[in-house]
Amino acid sequence: MSPAEEEKSLPLPERWPRASKFALSACAAAVAELVTFPLDLTKTRLQVQGEAAVHRNGAAASQAVPYRGMLRTAAGIVQEEGLLKLWQGATPAVYRHIVYSGVRMVAYEHIRESVLGRSEDKSFPFWKAVVGGMSAGAIGQFFASPTDLVKVQMQMEGKRKLEGKPLRFRGVHHAFMKILSEGGIRGLWAGWVPNVQRAALVNMGDLTTYDSVKHFLLLNTPLVDNSLTHSVASCCSGLVAAVLGTPADVVKTRIMNQPRDKQGRGLLYKSSMDCLIQTVQGEGFMSLYKGFIPTWMRMAPWSLVFWLTYEQIRRICGVSSF
Question: Exposed, middle or buried, 193 (CB in 10 Å: 0-12/13-18/19+)?
């Protein structure tokens, strides 16, 4: 058998390992995103309520949405806009995770196996996991930033309708084209800096924590590489990711949701640091943790669904465990 024929006879994951891992992680992420998306919508609505910069720039006080908790916000969306509105913006969110999760998972494994490398005992030192997680998250989020921008802006359409404002978008394609026409290519990457910062922090919590906890359990406890170990590691990663990522998520959401001029420049905030300062000065430090409960309640099940699905898909397709 010639080398070419021998290569063709290999299973798909062995012929194209990175492409296969990209596809598997994208599938797992799409499942997790659809299951937990209503919590993401609730979190986004909570994060823009009471935005101080909006009121300083002339928004009518009568249009301010009262502060509500997670459950009341979700119930209000169902009562005022309809049940299906809990999935408003889900399409660009799935697009985003196909790109984001696919790139970050492939990048992390490449960094772990080829760039930084494991120790002689096959362990991956914690500091290397931190560097790998933050780098992989930043790379994945940069590529996925345009889809994240569309997702955030479409999630706010229901709120605009209730405030009597005209809707900005008719769908995902229209949103992409309108943002492109108004702000150019630069407009599609509006808010990419806080977006990447948040992704780096979240993945330091998610990828780093999952990888470190999983292999710690395998090396130091009687647990084996099964769904129980994956569940424990994913619960830990979801909590750490929420604690580290919520402040950056608040800043990212506000920058991406602000109105823009024809050059794609924001009218409320000059930069992510300016948004951070205005938010703390106008609303207090704890405003950076607006939406923390739904963020955590979303990240925990998202992480659980994603990692369990991803590990099982890898096993079924003959790919080694993460």
Answer: middle
